[in-house]
Specification:
single chain; 324 residues; alpha/beta; Rossmann fold; 2 domains; four-stranded mixed β-sheet; five-stranded parallel β-sheet
Amino acid sequence: MASILHPPGDGAPLSGPTRVISRFAPSTTGPAHPGTLLAALLCWLDARALGARLRLRLEDLDPERSRPEWREAMGRDLTWFGLDFDDVDLQSEAGGAHEAALDRLAELGRLYPCSCTRSELRARGLPTAEGGTRYPGTCRGRALPPDGWRATRDPLRVALPTDPIPVRDEGGEPLDPDPGAAMGDPIVRRRDGSVAYQLAGVVDDARVGVTRIVRGRDLASSTATQVALQRLLLLPEPTYRHHLLLLEERGGKLAKLHGAVDVTTLRQHYDAAALCGVLAHAAGLLERPDPVRPVELLDGFAWECVGRRDRVMGWTGERLELVD
């Protein structure tokens, strides 16, 4: 991963009492796609414009879907695209910190095992605005085994506080202040034994001092839950900004532009500057999809220039095209 590290001495100094620390945290459960690169580009531009330290965290905890080759490919694709990072972290190397957080939640009496199956949750839970199912709290009263959370194979959930949590998005994205009512108690350790996204991300951000999070608005619904976990664990709360998504038309519905084309295919049809121009144009940073390198977009970068509405794109088999 050394090739994607920020060159020493290049750019703003990496020290100072008020230094902002940001991160880009893609999962390694599949190849990168156009939305991955757009999210990485906006996160990179934001961090470099602020003189922030920018970390790359490769989220590789899923034992069934995460693969080493996708982890390596993510680094190569981001380097090819023209993005660099000051540090690279593997989420799988932070197991001790994740277990310590579970220990603390157990000490607080907030951790409980959940034996509900997916079919039971679909039958009992209420649909959420994101298309998922709100956990109805069926197992909330269950106690951990006498030997603690490590002695159960059931998934583990956290009993969230019932008080509303005021959360502000820097860009004005609406954030639900009551994650318990909106989504229910989150799973923090899965049935396969891996620590789940909500808790792992919160712990990892605090562990390396992240103060600012820039990510797609598809994750906005997770923000209040993550802030609730931060407050339970007495962890610092970063600043959040959520941005537009790239969508595709699929079966008459809109879905994230993911499965239609991956970066390996895109690299057969675009060089890095040409692809960057297409994505920057879709985000509102360029009037035309002319070739450009990420560093050329830094001068004058401001969030006021980034479009707020999601963009629909199609893949013709040879190029990306805006549909809307």
